[in-house]
Amino acid sequence: MKRNGVIIALALSVMAQNAMAKTLNVVASFSILGDIVEQVGGDHVNVNTLVGPDGDPHTFEPSPKDSAMLSKADVVVVNGLGLEGWLDRMVKASGFHGTLVVASDGIKTHTLEEDGKTVTDPHAWNNMANGARYAQNIQAALEKADPEDAADLKTSGSRYIAQLQQLDGWAKTQFSAIPQAKRKVLTSHDAFGYFSRAYGVTFLAPQGLSSESEPSAAQIAQMIKQIKADGVKVWFMENQLDPRLVRQIASATGAQPGGELYPEALSAPGGVADTYEKAMRHNIETIANSMK
Ligand SMILES: [Zn+2]
């Protein structure tokens, strides 16, 4: 009788665990997405990130360890829009059979002309309104993969989305208080196209949409001319890139250093930009302060 009691208790506890919802194994392609998944998913997700803090998502080279991590994931979250050129091969090679979520789904994109080709700008998260859309897409995907926790995910997702929308409004007021002629800065690569359109700031950058591209001597000379003509006074480092090229160009124009921006990689945990929200707030404040 006692023995039966133990068995029944065991069976009940197994049933309870099954009904209680699982912790989803999620792999995010880069650190900003990893943080959005954590904010929305809370205790219901275990997040691993392929391109970590201070890492360049354009030029990433996956290791066999990354591939093994992908093969065990329930959900993989990527930006899409051509950011992760290394991903398709990796997904195929890893034998991943879970759900692939494209966080940028439904975003209004824009294109740029680069070396005679029309290229979609992948850096959509640098507009906070788009970031809120990313969070919505991620929330919907997590709810689908873990329906038992849908109510919890809805609560944490909505709270987080509201915070991003509030920050978006705050960013607009920060920049609208600054005269348009002063809202011009120099950075390393074209990561701020969506930021530029959302908040009315002009960015010049010697490297194109992907940090892989290298400008010619003639393009650099042209850029120096343009910086002087446009009266660009400040330049910024990007945490995930070597600043030598932009520093060299800046020094030829007299532009002053404005600090470091986090356009596509978080800082290490404990740093000034270790969440998406903190990175955006830091970028907005640093850029706005440089114009005052
Ligand atoms: Zn980039």
Automatic annotation (TrEMBL):
SUPFAM superfamilies, per the entry: Helical backbone' metal receptor
Subcellular location(s) per record: Cell envelope
InterPro entries: AdhesinB (IPR006129), Bact_metal-bind_prot9 (IPR050492), Lipoprotein_PsaA-like (IPR006128), ZnuA-like (IPR006127)
An annotated Gene Ontology molecular function: metal ion binding
Keyword annotations from UniProtKB, A to Z: Metal-binding, Signal, Transport
GO annotation (BP), single: metal ion transport
Pfam families cross-referenced by the UniProt entry: ZnuA
Primary location: other
Signal peptide stretch: 1-21
Gene Ontology annotations for the cellular component aspect, listed alphabetically: cell envelope
Similarity-based family: Belongs to the bacterial solute-binding protein 9 family.
Record's protein name: Metal ABC transporter substrate-binding protein
